[in-house]
Design a protein that fits this description.
This protein is an alpha+beta fold. The protein has one domain: Arc Repressor Mutant, subunit A, CATH 1.10.10.10. It has five helices and three strands; from the N terminus they run ααβααββα.
Length: 99
């Protein structure tokens, strides 16, 4: 889809999603959730070696802005990319950062 075909509401949503992604910890979270992976807060905080409360905070922002979705399974809540195409953005940013 081309940007000129997006209405103002869609542009606002896209802008908010990009703002939510634009943080080193959140990019790292998304990197771990690529390829349709589903992880819990505990798994993510252990992978990133950051506080669980910090992890929860960042997951909340990403979920609130429509970047992530979650599914409860028993005591655990699993987080995953809401849209598979977000992996392309992560890949693009990763490639551009290496230049």
């Amino acid at each position: 889809m081309k940007f000129d075909k997006l209405n103002p509401e869609q542009l606002e949503k896209a802008s908010n999603m990009l703002k939510a992604i634009a943080h080193p910890v959140r990019i790292a979270i998304l990197n771990h959730l690529e390829n349709e992976k589903k992880l819990t807060v505990t798994e993510i905080h252990e992978l990133l070696q950051i506080e669980q409360s910090t992890t929860s905070h960042h997951l909340g922002i990403l979920k609130d802005k429509g970047v992530l979705a979650s599914k409860r399974d028993g005591k655990n809540t699993y987080y995953y990319l809401k849209h598979k195409d977000l992996s392309s953005i992560i890949d693009c940013v990763s490639r551009c950062a290496c230049i």
